[in-house]
Amino acid sequence: MFGTALPAMPPAAYYADPSASRAGLIGLAPMEGVIDVTTRRLLSAQGGLDWVVTEFVRVVDQPLPPRVFHRLCPELAQGAATADGTPVQLQLLGSDPTAMAENARIAVGCGATALDINFGCPAKTVNRHGGGASMLKSPSDIHATVAAVCRAVPDTPVSAKLRLGFEDRQLALQCAAAAVQGGARWLTLHARTRKEGYRPPAHWEWIARIRHHVNVPIVANGDIWTLEDYWQARALSGCRNVMIGRGLLSDPLLAARIRHWQRTGEQLPTTQWAERAAVLRAFAEGLADDLPEKVVVSLIKQWLSLMRQHDTEAAERFVHLRTLRHTDDLLDALDGPATP
Ligand SMILES: Cc1cc2nc3c(=O)[nH]c(=O)nc-3n(C[C@H](O)[C@H](O)[C@H](O)COP(=O)(O)O)c2cc1C
């Protein structure tokens, strides 16, 4: 069970509710430039999330100052949990085992209670330096990196997040096995290659193949937008646990709705626009004190833009909201009719 696979995670939501753990855990996916501390707080407050993961801390070849870890993960100062107690896992990205190990030690010294290693980032700038998805070309490099991190922080659970491959899926099983042999306590699998980017479909059935090949829990990830997707991803991957990114930005209540379904078998109605707009408003309010208005406006638009991919109400509003420049105008328009 996941609970036993994550013994050192802080006591939090899923320990408090074993029935939820049995039903299957739900994690919030890391998303660089999108899922920051405010978003993590807001989304975990909607309920249904068992853990969240930070954007990646990029490791090159030097130890990073503690402030870098605290900036990306302010929750380190409060027991590595969000305000409502959801555990926060810190993600590292890098290809130099020595530097990764050193930075893992610093992260744990700063308060990290669980680490994840990114082997999925498709960004060219990252891949050029051998990090993220480019590591999927070399299972032995994955092994070396995970093993170095695990050795450096033996009392801290370390997981790995992988795609199915770089160009193709030929090394999918080897990469997963390498991460596990290196000491990863669980794997999160984004069911696409780097070449496939974010294009549907996610190949959940490939997760099932990998699951049979390794002996640690697997978290299925990719393209879970609805309750139906959730069950299909579970059925095809055979995984109990999932991680959701864009689906939770599109419908911030998705995890809560899945949890309700797990517990009662009852499907809650689709999340109303007013509920989505309330989350965007809270997001704007959460950012307003710390960031210039221009940045707040662009972050609200970024979230709305992700929402619109699966939500016609958001799509209709995005058309006229995209030209607005002031937070108040944006928030008024969010509360107003879809077509003014
Ligand atoms: C804008 C954006 C940023 C992302 N940043 C990260 C990241 O920092 N670390 C990581 O492991 N994955 C990152 N991902 C991948 C997601 O965690 C996730 O694997 C992917 O979006 C598929 O899941 P989803 O369909 O539920 O969104 C990012 C994805 C997007 C769209």
From TrEMBL:
The keyword Oxidoreductase applies. PROSITE patterns: UPF0034 (PS01136). Its cofactor is FMN. One of its GO terms (molecular function) is tRNA binding. Coiled coil: none annotated. InterPro entries: Aldolase_TIM, DUS-like_FMN-bd, DUS_fam, DusC, DusC_C, tRNA_hU_synthase_CS. Belongs to the dus family. Catalyzes the synthesis of 5,6-dihydrouridine (D), a modified base found in the D-loop of most tRNAs, via the reduction of the C5-C6 double bond in target uridines. Specifically modifies U16 in tRNAs. This is tRNA-dihydrouridine(16) synthase. It comes from Zymobacter palmae. The gene is dusC.
